[in-house]
Amino acid sequence: MSPPPAPSVPTPAVSIAPMMERTDRHHRFMMRQITRHTLLYTEMVTTGALLHGPRDRLLAHHPTEHPIALQLGGDDPEALRQCARIAEDRGFDEVNINIGCPSSRVQSGNFGVCLMGDPARVAAGVAAMKAEVAIPVTVKHRIGFDELDHYDDMLRFVDIVAAAGADRFTVHARKAWLQGLSPKDNRNIPPLRHDEVWRLKRERPHLQIEINGGITDLDQTAAHLAHVDGVMIGRAAWDRPMLFAEVDHRFFGAPARTVEPAAVVHAMAEHAARCFADPADEGFKLRHVVRPLFGIFAGLPGARRWRRNLSDAAQAEAGPAALISAMPA
User: Fold this and answer.
1) For residue range 134-192, what is the model confidence (pLDDT) as tens digits?
2) Which residues, at least 6 apart from 223, have a Cβ–Cβ distance to it below 8 Å?
3) What letters, b where the CB count within 10 A reaches 16 and e where it falls short, cover 273-292?
4) Which of 4, 74, 165, 258 is deepest in the core (most CB within 10 A)?
């Protein structure tokens, strides 16, 4: 097979992984107070939901969230093409296909990690999207799944999809078991195989390769960036969001700036006030902005009291001022 063409879009040094019931617009708004350059992702949106469901709600994002990527779940090239057009028209900076999720829901819909077994179909989807939009079209996938988990299997998948024009491959460095392990277990039990992602970059240096899986601090991030083009961080971004306060300076060359947790809380209180006042946000509750804030004081004095106060405020359905009063002294 001839080498695939080199993509024209560079990979951001750091991104935050798309996480279901985590990376919603409130989490993304919070993270943008902490890091201005990290690439943010939506939660995965299925093509069916986007084409036939509450599109405005699914695609809602604040102007400050850029750069932001829309992650899609689906396997039909025409549906993916239409959704890519919607993503570009709605101002997203990138559209990504999920070829990594192992849940029974995505298996029944024939998308997610099971599509690693059908690289030609993924390539057809990428080609359809690339023909439709100018924004990057990227793929997030695993090392493999079930018995299709050898390095050569992954390399074949990447080569076929790269030939269709994919701009970046984000590789979760674990395989997935479609039977016997829950999605949560699939994030922890299969062993990490970072070396195979590094090997992929060595053997396909013209491709943009990003690594994901088990990366929890910035020193690890720096070590991986010696081998690949980008690092995607998942659960650590949820558990310890202030980890990203140094990312812009350390990995994007931006001037150093001080970001305090209290300033983030004040920004989120203002964000909550806007949501309460917006008729389009009917049904908004304080708990929607409380969830991503639980870890904002992680590792600092008063963190436990902060979490307790936040929980009380959410249960009482309090107003934005409750976020300020919940902060540790």
Assistant:
1) 999 999 999 999 999 999 999 999 999 999 999 999 999 999 888 777 777 777 778 89
2) none
3) eebeeeeeeeebebbbbbbb
4) 74
pLDDT at residue 236, rounded to an integer: 97
Q: In sequence order, what are the residues at sequence separation of 6 or more whose Cβ sits closer than 8 angstroms to the Cβ of residue 275?
A: 281, 284, 288, 289
What does the pLDDT look like over 40-61, one tens digit per residue?
A: 999 999 999 999 999 999 999 9
Residue 329 predicted with pLDDT over 90: no
Instruction: Tell me the whole-structure pTM to 2 decimals.
Output: 0.94
Contact 130, 172 (CB under 8 A): no
DSSP β-bridge partners for residue 109: none
On the 0-12 / 13-18 / 19+ scale of CB atoms within 10 A, 315 is exposed
| Cβ–Cβ < 8 Å for 279, 223 | no
Q: Is 156 exposed, middle or buried (0-12, 13-18, 19+ CB in 10 A)?
A: middle
Distance CA 233, CA 237 (A): 6
- Map tokens 């992702």 to a residue: 41
CA angle 122, 105, 215 (to 5 degrees): 70
275 flagged as catalytic: no
The residue type found at 3 is P
Show the CA angle centred on residue 72, arms to residues 71 and 75, nearest 5°. 150
